[in-house]
User: Fold this.
Amino acid sequence: MTKPLTSRRGSTVRYRAPHQDARIQNIRSMKRPGGCMRIRLLGELEAVLNDVSITPTAAKPRQVLALLALNARRIVSVQSLVEELWGHHPPPSVRTTLQTYILQLRKLIDSALPAGSGRTAKDILVTRFDGYLLDIVPENVDVCSYERLVKAGQQALARGDHEAVSTLLGMALTKWQSRALVDVRIGLLLSLEVARLEESRLNALEARIAADIQLGRHQSVLSELTVLTAQQPMHENLCAHYMVSLYRSGRQWQALQAYKTLRTTLNRELGVEPSLRLRRLQQAVLRSEADLDVLVEPVPDPARATNA
Assistant:
């Protein structure tokens, strides 16, 4: 639902939530050549045009599609594509081979375009000066949709609206099916993108959990934190959230055990002690300080990796 607001001049304006802006953008873009194409990258690669799967099966065309989709409506240079596909050892006929992969993608696109539409694959996978551009709605790529929601969550965090932070980042995280590009052979460029996205995912997850704790939902995040601290055994912020949630749930000894486990791991793997902040939290738990009933670690910036 939209919320009526009053402008400084007294006229009524309407507030739109991020998902409503995206829906309007999608409706306006339906007339564009690639307006009906949707691409999933946060998990297994999937490309659908007009409800027809156009996901390539060969490894290198999948790489090309993934890199173009991550840069929707932006030119990806031939040099970048070559670097992704072959690294520092391209074949002698590199441009001809790349054009073959582009042709394969265009054939898949053409197969999903309705007859008599007046559109061709070249209108969607466009040749530009020394590069290519995938002319589709960025919001129809799950990565773009995810990053928009993360940005909205960051803005809510700046306002101190923890409920909105929890909701928006929760919506963002549902875009993930598994690890980014899990079934795509990745080269130099895509490997950097995957690392960036995975870091962004962890930051968003941590921020959403912190917001939930601020809202008094410490018991509801316990099972999630149990798994996360096992997967990230040296992540101090996750450990801090886990300790606070355990303590508030009446499980003081388990909160102390969580600290002990982290400390042992840091000593064994890196030869270091936990941070002063975490040591102070451990002492607060040990003494059952009253401040623990309101103490929550600062929520990290969920867009830190996204905007890198």
Observations:
- The chain has two domains: 17-140, 142-293.
- Residues 1-16, 24-30, 295-308 have pLDDT under 50 and may be disordered.
- The longest helix spans residues 188-214.
